[in-house]
Amino acid sequence: MLIRVEYRDGHFDMVKPAVLKQHLRADAIMKFWRNHAWVHADYSPLREEMSTRYAGSERRQMAA
């Protein structure tokens, strides 16, 4: 599967998900297409950022 991206210099490309991650880490991507809308790398929540471990209190009951 290829993902449509717009680089910071304004040109568009189609890249594989692994390449997208590399470019996002290098801050080379301005936005990319996800399912039905553009995701802006500067201010849209990215899945990698959202996957951090929950830091709140544990509310589930422990098994007996």
Structure description:
With 64 residues, this protein is α+β, with helices and mostly antiparallel strands. It has a domain at 3-45. It has helices spanning 17-25, 47-50, and strands at residues 3-7, 12-15, 29-34, 37-40. Strands 2-1-3-4 form a four-stranded antiparallel sheet. It is elongated, with a radius of gyration of 16 Å.
The rounded distance between the terminal residues' Cα atoms is: 45 Å
Which value, in Å, is the CA radius of gyration?
16 Å
DSSP helical segment count:
2
SSE order? EEHEEH
Tell me, briefly, the overall form. elongated
Largest sheet geometry: 4 strands, antiparallel
For the biggest β-sheet, the strand order reads 2-1-3-4
Low-confidence stretches: none
- Strand count: 4
Please estimate the helix content: 10-25%
Strand content: 25-35%
What structural category characterises the helix and strand content?
A: alpha+beta
Which whole number gives the mean pLDDT?
82
Notable traits:
64 residues; alpha+beta; 4 strands
SSE diagram, text form:
Blueprint: E1 3-7, E2 12-15, H1 17-25, E3 29-34, E4 37-40, H2 47-50
Short précis:
This protein has 64 residues and is of the alpha+beta class. 20% of the residues lie in helices and 30% in strands. It has a domain at 3-45.
